[in-house]
Design brief:
Elements lengths: L20 H8 L18 H10 L41 E6 L2 H6 L15 E7 L15 E6 L16
Antiparallel strand pairs: 1-2, 2-3
Length: 170
């Protein structure tokens, strides 16, 4: 899925929530009208909402996309979202692209003296968040690797996630 438009200039690490939904939908589902009035000029859904719609709606993962970039209209379909190495369809309730991460308040912790250059231990966690991976990890050198994710919400007890072992890195 495409990144936020704010990332196009390369001048930010936090997105603006605006992304090219219309282009994405026309490429991934060229013969299907976008549901729920979704568009870049109407109701702009989050990438996670679109992903869940595709997983939960029969047939959406098997739509033939044009793939590649740029995405010229009329291009021969190239790929679909179905699993190709696994013969079993995962349950729709499985969120394979969600990361659970600790969230800390760096400004407050620095101001109170808990955080300061170097190694810190016993950092209080403000919350745990759910982050949706918008595309696979880059395959370049480890020093160039980065994760592009969309914040989905905070973790609730009903999410049935264990938080016992976390290591925070900067």
């Amino acid at each position: 899925m495409p990144p936020d438009t704010g990332f196009q200039t390369g001048s930010t690490t936090i997105g603006n929530g605006v992304w090219y939904f219309d282009t994405y939908w026309s490429v991934e589902h060229p013969t299907v009208t976008a549901p729920n009035g979704w568009s870049n000029t109407g109701t702009l859904p989050s990438r996670y909402v679109v992903y869940r719609y595709e997983v939960e709606t029969a047939g959406r993962l098997s739509d033939q996309s044009r793939g590649g970039s740029p995405y010229p209209p009329g291009t021969t379909p190239k790929e679909d979202g179905q699993p190709h190495c696994n013969t079993h369809q995962p349950p729709a309730s499985v969120d394979r692209r969600i990361l659970f991460n600790a969230i800390i308040n760096c400004q407050a912790l620095t101001a109170s003296g808990v955080l300061g250059g170097g190694r810190n231990t016993n950092i209080p966690v403000a919350a745990f968040g759910k982050f949706f991976l918008i595309h696979p990890l880059d395959k370049g050198p480890a020093s160039d690797a980065h994760i592009d994710a969309e914040f989905v919400g905070t973790v609730k007890q009903s999410d049935n996630v264990s938080f016992n072992n976390y290591q925070l890195y900067r």
